[in-house]
Design a protein that fits this description.
Elements (H helix, E strand, L loop, with lengths): L2 H25 L9 H20 L7
């Protein structure tokens, strides 16, 4: 399996997990994490950056 295909599969799974988490968060507004919002937002940002990179990486042309 090529890197391109693996990257897209992993990014797609990450997107599905993110959507499922969002749905859970919307339906359970009293749930929370045991740490501050700053840490939570940092985790969200890192997750999104990795997911976007996995979607974009296969479209870059190699030298």
């Amino acid at each position: 399996m090529s890197f391109k295909k693996k990257s897209r599969i992993i990014a797609s799974i990450m997107l599905i997990v993110a959507i499922a988490f969002f749905v859970f968060a919307v339906t359970h507004p009293t749930a929370s994490f045991p740490w501050s919002n700053t840490i939570t937002y940092f985790i969200y940002a890192v997750y999104m950056v990795i997911m976007v990179l996995l979607f974009v990486a296969p479209h870059k042309k190699g030298k």
